[in-house]
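JOB MANIFEST
job_type = single_chain_structure
chain_count = 1
residues = 320
[input]
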Amino acid sequence: MESSPAHAAAFSDVFQIPEGEVHQYRLPLPDVAGSGKFIVCGDIAIADGNVAGGTADFSWQHYNEKAFVELNFVMAGQLFQTHEGLMQRQLLKQGYSNILYNPGSWEKNELAGDKGFHNLGVHIRPEKMMALLSSYAPELQHLAEKIDKGEHFVLHSPAAYFSPQLEYVLGQVWETPAPLGLRRLHVETQVLQLFYLQCAATMAALHAAPADGLRTADRDRLQHARQYLLDNLLLPPTLSELARICGLNEFKLKKGFRLLFGQSVFGFVSNERLNTARQQILQGDHNISEIAYALGYTHPQHFHRAFKKKFGLTPGALLK
């Protein structure tokens, strides 16, 4: 099932909201529940869209009329995305991110599964992005030159997962203060941190030789281990079970997982459970205790402490 251009055309309207105002909206998609929020601060905007679910063949498209450089972060789910003349049915899944510039073109999205899709996108005006690249990332000056010439590009993140630092910043984006001036400062600060982390990861991949000593085969097995944990967060395997599943011994699994993903196996499961809990709390379909128990926390107090340690506020405060 594919949405019509008439439904998709309304996407550009959100750029007209008053500056500094967090705007909640329903995505104009037929037969599918979708929502999001949007904020504009000067030359920067953040769009957070969530398609709750739909048939696996559901798709929608819209025309990217405005000229913005995008930083995209897939928070949950997966879909195939096509950008006219640039990207053909690229699979975007949780943990994927990119830097993309493709104004004046059609974009098509196709759900890959029935669990929906959640993406946080940062939109930066071309002049602002060129200034940021020139001032802080001269190693990526070629991107500024492409923007200046109007040449379209997409730069895929070298990692298929979010680092703990990136997860933390993404979790703080919408913790905006009430005063308008501080809200703008908060948004600009979070966007600069996201820009920094994107550039740092890209430059490390371009200029640094691999220093972790992992063989390609072991990297593939560790990626399989990570994906298996994501698919089984509610009932994760033991270390010995996971080692057997991915074909590594426990020592290689523990050491390699920390080298490749920047955290222990246990830390990864805990972080992903808390990220899932945060999304479910915001969706409002279950109360906090139900969410905690469903994610494997035997005592709500343990869940509250872990949640506050990661996000800086209690689960209840997230709803206020």
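[summary]
Residues 1-11 have pLDDT under 50 and may be disordered.
The radius of gyration is 20 Å.
exit_status = 0
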